[in-house]
Each structure stands twice: as C-alpha cells, then as structure tokens.
Design goal:
Phosphorylase Kinase, domain 1; Transferase(Phosphotransferase), domain 1; Leucine-rich repeat, LRR (right-handed beta-alpha superhelix); six-stranded antiparallel sheet; globular; disordered N terminus; ATP-binding; Kinase-like_dom_sf; transferase
Length: 691
C-alpha cells in the first residue's frame, strides 16, 4: 500500500459523518475530523462482564454481519444490549456495533432501541455519540453502528480515581451541558443522564466527555411513555438520578435532564449521588420530597464555591419550573464559574456557616415544609436572576436611560453610578453601591439567611435570590426603585411607608423575577394591584392593612401556583368568595391567611379542598364549630389560628383529627375547665394560645 493511500485511510478512520444514516454508505464519508483519542485508555465498557450466550447466534468473532461488518471482539454489555467492535468491509474503519440481547427482545425494548437510533442518528455534536448505520438481522434483532470511542465511563473513572477536581468537573460538565442543550434544541430529551452514560476520552491531557445511550430518549411532542415497564420490571430512568417528575410518572421536559445532570455532577464532585437508599422506592421518595444535601455536606466538610452550591441547588429543585430555564443557561453559568476560577478554589470548612446549619436542620416530609418551599423558591424560581455579568457592557447604559435615574448632583451624592456592577475582585458576585452615611434598608438572601444593612457596598452571589426591605430613608424618593434593573430582586417588603402608593406598584411591575411581595400598612389599593395582575412568578403574597379587595386579588394570574397567601382585611364588606374559588383544589398553597375577611361556614368548603395546607389563619371571621369540622381532611395542618370567634367544645373532635398540629390559637375562655383539659389531652404535642 502506498504511503499516500495509507494516509488517506488514516484520515478516513477519523472522519465524523454529518449525513443521515440512510445516506452515509451510499457515498464517501464526509464531515469533520474527531479529536484523536488516547489509545492507552481502555475501551469503554471493557471491564463489564460479558454474557456471550445472550448474543444473537451469528455473533462470533470473524463473522460478517449484514454483509458489511466484520465482528472483531465484544467490548461491552449494557442493560439490554451488547456492543461489539467491528470493521466495515469496504471502508476499513472500526466502529462499535450495538444489538439487543436475546433475553431482552420484546416490543418495549425494541421501541427503546429504535428511539436510541432515531435520536442519535440526527446529532452532530463533538460530545455526542454518532450513529452511522442501522439494520435488522435475519432473526429479527435490530442493530446499529456508531463511532468507536476509547475511554472509561465516568462511573469507572470515579471508581478508579475518586471525585473529579473542581476544575476537571467544571470543564467536563460544561461540555456535557453543551451536548444536552444541542439535543434539546433538536427536540430530544435524554431521560437517563448518569455517570454510566458518559465516556471520558482524553485530548491534549484534558478530559473530553461523550454522552451516549439515548435508548430512553423522549421526542418532544411525541407523547409520554410510562415510568416503568411492568413486564420487564424496569424503570424509565435510573433511580439515583431520576427527577421527581420521572419518579411520579409525570410528563417530563428538558428540565428533567437538568435535574439528572445535577445528580451526576453531584456524584462526580463528591463521590456519591445526592440521595441514597437501600431500595428503589426509598430513592424515589427521597427525590420527590427530601431536600438535597449541600456538596460540602456530601464531601465530608470540604467546602465548594457558594455560587456552585447555589447552581446545583437550583438544578435539583423539586418543581421543574424552579430549575434553570434551559440547558443553555446551565452551560452559561458553568462558564461563569470557570471565568471566575480564582474565586472557585475550595476553601477550608467553616463550621459556623449559616447555610450549613440551615441545610442540616432540614427534614424530609411528604409535602414540602414552608422552609423548604421558600428555599426551593429561593434557589431556583428566578432563572437567570441578576446575570449582570452578561448584561453590563450593553444594557447598563440602556437601563439607566430607560429608568430615568435622576442625574442631578444631589442624587449622585447619595447613590453612585453605576448603582450595581460585577464585583471587580470576584466575577461570580455582584456589588450594590449604597451611600455610606445612613442605612437605606436591608437586603436578605432568601430564605432569610441573615439581613445586611444597606449602607456602603453590599456583595452577593451574582444570581442569588435577594429580597429588599427599604427604609424611610430610601423612600424619601420612591423613584429610587428605578435604580434596580428588572432582574435584580426576587422579593420586596414594604412596611408602613406612607409614600408607597400605586406608583410604586407601577415600578415593580417591570421586575421580571418578582416572587415575593409583602405589603404592610401602605396606601396601595386595587388600582395598584392591577399592575401585577399578570405576574406569573409570584409565589408569596402578603397584604396586611392594605385597602385591596378580594375581587381584585382573585384576578391575579399567580393564584394558579401561589404557595403563601396571607391577608388581613379591614373591610367588613370584603368578598373573598371569588378568591377562594380560584384556590379550590390548589396542590401548591401551603399557607393561607384570611383574617377579618368576612368568612362564613360555607366558605370553608373551598378551603377544605386545599389538601397541602400546613398553616391556616382564619381569626376574626364568622365561623362555627360545625363549620370548622369541614376542615378535618387537611391532614398536614401544623399551625391553625381560630381566635376572635366563639367556638364551642364540640370542635375538639375535629381538632383531634389534626395529627400534625403543632400550634393552635383558639379562644377557650368560656369553656368549662374539664373541656379545656380535654383539648390539651387530645393534642399533647401542640402549643396553645388562648387569645
């Protein structure tokens, strides 16, 4: 063979096709060159036990398959397929050929196998396995050929070498996120992201991941497959890495892959996935209801960058809508962490960390506790919150112009320009520049991780969920709210500001990520509430001594997913029937407060359908003991407040049914002493307030 021909053959062996599988072998191999792989790394799956008796009868080394593939040797075995190294007869290139195991040949697995072929054959991404050809053997068993990649699976790599370093992990999962984002843009959801389905090759001494096995892939708009195949006994997905919606058999989206990727990242960085259990059902339950540990906790106290902890927490949110918006966003955030790598070095463990204490105090529950709901909200509600690292160069000037910030000398003396910017010393943090003369309020990272006075410079992780509680100093000029861009704040608390009027609501209506709004003793009425009528991010709404009507509140779009709604009404004629009807059967609301709201027994019919309620505040309404009995099915109630009304001792039977009740406010001043004693005996673990 001439040297020129040998060179051509070598080039052909590294070619990556870009045409479809149907066209590939009708013409020469077009496409781009794949990076050379390290031949010293073992072939993927080479360490797996092979049960050759499960292979189709024709699968013997040296045989020709489908007239064009020479079988060289088996290289791997998965849950339902065998992988052989083969050589194409005409092209003389080595490929991997995958076929179904005889014992797993059934209609369900055939469909999965076909899905894997259909998904992978349309991809052309350097971090995704590429399918070359497919066919069906004479005995009816399908096969397909794909590029042959040298290297261990991520699972095998972790077993041999331990967790990835921080830099390795960020670089590897930046590429994995890019690959999955590409698949999502091609309307394909992987549904089985795990370390076994990522191969690590080497290029220029750097790890290069290849994502494979789209056998469980779901094509967007193609309909939902069941969570398991009862005849085969298999889950659709792998329990240690399955999203809560997968665990419950619900419709999945790209957000499910984001969750599974977070579980895989978690294991790669700490050595174990976020949840462990002896049995699959225990794992599924933990995914559904148990808060995940921090990376630091899982790594035995080794600290990770705060920004990375927050990112993983967002990706692991139970509610898909609270995770990162897309795999592209995950990719951007990892790039941000890499960009700020000087501040991402692992720091010594700080035992007095407030975040660590909060995470350690979390406990599992079938229904989310309030703290966990708010924590999940805090971590993931605002996809892309405050990413000014991307926006500063082009949008800071535009925001200042659009927001019409006063540029007179006096205002400049109070608030520097720019008011917020990327921290020059730490690219993964944002700094707010407040004047240094007096405090302008407090800022808090949700959920209530300590407040900081708004004086001088305040620094936060660049996408941290921040709540702002302005002081009277700030509201000397209410237009100062313009200083915040549309993506800076998650929460706002307005407390007794006489200058907080409807115009303030017009300002915050522009905030895209507002999830928490609490208003106390302010002159904001129905007109003001109209400005946030279309806000669909709001999950916490508190209105106390605010002249708004139940009719107007009932128009809010956020009611379909509100989690905390707490209202004190001073209007004796207020009508909350439309609001309660909107909340009927809500699976999300965990706290409802309707004090002084002119409620009667009939209104409790709607409240009784809110099965996830944990806190219910109904003081100072026209309710009876017979009416309260309608609430007996609210099994998760832990805080019930029924003061300001005359309930007789017959209510004890109903209260006894609330086995989780921890706090009860009820007026028993006119009860016989023996009935008061009976109440206390009925609820021995409850804290009472007799007001």
């Amino acid at each position: 063979m001439s040297q020129e021909k040998q060179t051509a053959d070598d080039e052909a062996s590294r070619v990556r096709p870009t045409k479809s599988a149907a066209d590939l072998f009708k013409v020469n191999l077009p496409g781009k060159l794949r990076p050379q792989l390290d031949p010293n790394l073992p072939a993927f799956g080479a360490t797996m036990p092979l049960e050759l008796q499960d292979a189709p009868a024709a699968f013997v080394s040296g045989n020709i398959i489908d007239g064009k593939y020479k079988l060289l040797r088996p290289v791997g075995k998965g849950g339902m397929g065998l992988v052989w190294l083969v050589e194409h007869n005409m092209l003389k290139i080595e490929l991997a050929l995958k076929t179904l195991i005889n014992s797993r040949m059934n209609a369900v697995n055939f469909q999965r196998f076909a899905k894997e072929i259909a998904a992978a054959s349309k991809f052309d991404h350097q971090n995704l396995i590429k399918v070359y050809d497919c066919g069906i053997l004479p005995d009816g068993i399908p096969y397909f050929t794909m590029e042959y990649v040298h290297g261990p699976t991520l699972k095998k790599f972790l077993e041999d070498h331990g967790p990835l370093t921080l830099n390795q992990g960020l670089e590897v999962f930046l590429q994995v996120a890019s690959a999955l984002g590409y698949a999502h843009r091609h309307n394909t959801i992987h549904r089985d992201i795990k370390p076994e389905n990522i191969i690590l090759t080497k290029q220029n001494n750097k790890l290069v991941p290849i994502v494979l096995d789209f056998g469980l892939a779901k094509f967007v708009h193609s309909g939902l497959m069941p969570v398991s195949d009862p005849t085969a006994g298999d889950f659709i997905g792998s329990p240690p890495y399955m999203s809560p919606e997968q665990c419950m058999g619900k419709e999945v989206s790209e957000k499910s892959d984001i969750y599974s990727l977070a579980c895989t990242m978690f294991e790669a960085l700490t050595g174990s996935p976020p949840f462990r259990a002896k049995h699959h059902l225990g794992l599924l339950q933990k995914h559904i209801s148990e808060p995940p540990p921090s990376l630091r906790q899982a790594a035995g106290g080794e600290a990770f960058p705060e920004a990375l902890e927050v990112l993983i927490g967002r990706m692991l949110a139970k509610d898909p809508e609270k995770r990162c918006r897309s795999m592209e966003e995950v990719e951007r955030l990892i790039k941000l962490l890499i960009k700020g790598k000087l501040s991402t070095s692992r720091a010594p463990y700080e035992s007095d960390s407030e975040e660590g204490e909060e995470l350690e105090n979390e406990s599992p529950r079938k229904s989310f506790t309030t703290a966990f709901i708010v924590s999940a909200l805090a971590l993931v509600l605002i996809a892309g919150l405050a990413f000014t690292v991307y926006l500063l160069s082009e949008t800071q000037k535009q925001q200042q112009s659009e927001n019409k910030i006063s540029q007179n000398e006096q205002e400049a003396d109070y608030f520097p320009s720019p008011f917020f910017e990327e921290d020059p010393d730490s690219p993964d943090r944002i700094v707010f520049h407040f004047p240094n003369k007096k405090s302008y309020g407090t800022m808090t990272i949700l959920p209530n991780r300590g407040s900081q006075q708004c004086i001088n410079d305040l620094r936060f992780p660049i996408y941290a969920p921040i709540s702002f509680r302005p002081s009277e100093n700030f509201f000397e000029k209410p237009e100062r709210l313009h200083l915040f861009g549309p993506d800076q704040l998650t929460g706002l608390v307005l407390d007794s500001h006489y200058r907080a009027t409807n115009s303030v609501m017009a300002d915050i209506a522009k905030w895209k990520r507002l999830a928490q709004l609490e208003i106390f003793n302010c002159a904001i009425d129905d007109k003001g509430l109209e400005y946030i009528e279309n806000n669909q991010k709001l999950e916490i709404l508190t209105l106390k001594n605010v002249p708004v009507s139940g009719d107007e509140i009932s128009k809010l779009k956020c009611l379909s997913h509100i989690k905390i709604l707490d209202i004190d009404s001073s209007n004796a004629t207020n009508n909350f029937k439309p609001l309660l009807h909107k909340l009927r059967n809500s699976p999300y609301i965990i706290r409802l407060g309707l004090r002084f709201s002119n409620l009667h027994d009939a209104d409790l019919d709607d409240i009784a359908t809110m099965k996830e309620l944990q806190d219910l505040y109904l003081s100072n309404n026209e309710l009876s003991s017979r009416g309260v009995a309608k609430l007996s099915k609210l099994q998760y109630l832990r805080d019930l407040r029924l003061t300001g009304m005359e309930l007789d001792p017959s209510v004890i039977g109903t209260l006894r049914s609330f086995s989780n009740l921890k706090i009860l406010h009820i007026n028993t001043k006119n009860w016989p002493p023996e009935k008061v004693k009976e109440l206390h005996q009925a609820l021995p673990n409850c804290e009472f307030s007799n007001t």
